[in-house]
Design brief:
Structural class: alpha+beta
Strand order of the largest sheet: 1-2-3-4-5-6-7-8
Strand content: over 45%
Order of helices and strands: HEEEEEEEE
Largest sheet: 8 strands, antiparallel, barrel
Number of helices: 1
Shape: elongated
Distance between the termini: 72 Å
Length: 208
């Protein structure tokens, strides 16, 4: 009986291990298949986070503790890959941009933007550098004017249609009237390093 019990136990362990391996293989296979199909869909949803580069990176007159124009944000960007070279999108973004430090009370600006954008891709490989331009409306909460026209030049790299890394310069063209409760300005711009994941939604009309 002890011998039989030992054999059954070893057999159970062996079968369990095999099932785990098969299950792991199936998960990897399904994920790979989905990723392959998803990256081919030309109507997509891009989303991700960003970090803003402080002005002191380029302006040595600012102290190291001054994080003016720094901050962070996030975005959602429905995208249509019109062709292998061109895509159109609508970038909807929230950015928190830190102000010019004047006191120990560190504040910032909450900025919402809505920016139609076009990107041009230089290659058709899995790694594709691109440039783009966006223009749209920027709303700086608690400051005037309420809605401001802005532009957004872009340079970046797309990886296999699943992830993109970009540098985006957001410039508000109007002169923002700063609320007196704020301690400093942000010079009507912020420079963001953005990471975007891309989820394929469905197949749409695509040019040759």
């Amino acid at each position: 009986m002890p011998f039989c019990h030992s054999v059954v136990k070893k057999l159970f362990i062996f079968v369990t291990l095999k099932m785990k391996l098969i299950l792991s293989f199936c998960i990897v296979f399904l994920f790979s298949t989905y990723a392959l199909i998803a990256q081919q869909k030309n109507v997509r949803l891009n989303f991700g986070l960003q970090g803003n580069i402080p002005e002191r990176t380029f302006n040595k007159n600012l102290k190291d503790y001054n994080n003016k124009n720094g901050g962070m944000g996030f975005h959602i960007c429905p995208t249509w890959r019109y062709s292998k070279r061109v895509s159109f999108s609508i970038n909807m973004e929230y950015a928190f941009v830190t102000e010019n430090y004047q006191t120990d009370a560190i504040g910032g600006f909450d900025i919402l933007s809505f920016s139609p954008t076009v990107n041009y891709y230089f290659t058709q490989h899995k790694i594709r550098p691109f440039v783009g331009i966006g223009t749209g409306l920027y709303h700086v909460l608690d400051h005037n004017p309420k809605f401001n026209l802005g532009i957004r030049p872009i340079v970046g790299v797309n990886f296999n249609n699943l992830f993109a890394l970009s540098l985006e310069y957001n410039r508000i063209l109007a002169n923002i009237v700063i609320n007196p409760r704020s301690h400093g300005a942000f010079d009507n711009y912020y420079l963001a390093v953005k990471g975007s994941f891309s989820l394929g939604l469905f197949y749409g009309t695509q040019a040759r």
